[in-house]
Write a sequence for this structure.
């Protein structure tokens, strides 16, 4: 078990929200092209309501996120409590049709 | 790390692994884009596939010799169906 309470918090956020994006900025005002693209891909997939966490303004949380996923870059997208990947992976999954399947499997979209 | 070194390293992943495409995005040999086909990707999520590749390059990534590597990963069956673009 990781003893950093922030890592526990990150895990809790991902488990209690269907779709979470840890990103730079917000969905309305992304502060990084990759974060913006991740949000666009979700919207294009019919996910109108998703949770965004701005790590740009919260260094300790960013560190905790990295510790939790062992993944060095943001954005990081979680669906149904599972770490899916960053901008590249979510875009590729969207293009292959795998994202739509996953969202249905996780009951995020009908 | 030059293209040949990078390609050879990635292809140590498993027998039958092929780097189908390798692009030096910036001409500085540290920002790469690779399209990889491997039977080892079978049954793995995309994040697991990417982790497998980055594991092979962890020293170079840690030292920043490889600063960025954009991956597109396919199983042979997926690649057969044809990646778009």
């Amino acid at each position: 078990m990781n003893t950093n309470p922030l890592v526990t918090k990150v895990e809790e956020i991902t488990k209690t929200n269907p779709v979470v994006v840890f990103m730079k900025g917000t969905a309305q005002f992304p502060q990084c092209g990759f974060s913006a693209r991740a949000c666009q891909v979700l919207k294009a997939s019919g996910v109108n309501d998703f949770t965004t966490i701005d790590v740009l303004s919260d260094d300790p949380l960013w560190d905790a996120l990295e510790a939790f996923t062992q993944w060095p870059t943001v954005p990081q997208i979680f669906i149904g409590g599972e770490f899916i990947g960053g901008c590249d992976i979510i875009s590729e999954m969207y293009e292959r049709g795998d994202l739509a399947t996953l969202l249905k499997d996780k009951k995020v979209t009908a | 790390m030059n293209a040949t070194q990078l390609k050879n390293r990635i292809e140590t992943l498993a027998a039958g692994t092929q780097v189908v495409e390798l692009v030096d995005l910036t001409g500085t040999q540290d920002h790469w884009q690779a399209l990889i086909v491997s039977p080892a990707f079978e049954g793995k999520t995309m994040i697991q596939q990417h982790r497998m590749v980055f594991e092979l390059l962890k020293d170079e990534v840690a030292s920043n010799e490889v600063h960025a590597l954009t991956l597109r990963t396919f199983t042979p069956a997926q690649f057969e169906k044809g990646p778009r673009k």
Q: What stands out?
A: The longest helix of chain A spans residues 5-16. The beta strands of chain A are 19-23, 51-54, 76-79, 82-85. Helices of chain A lie at 5-16, 33-44, 59-69, 87-96, 98-105. Chain A has a mean pLDDT of 95.
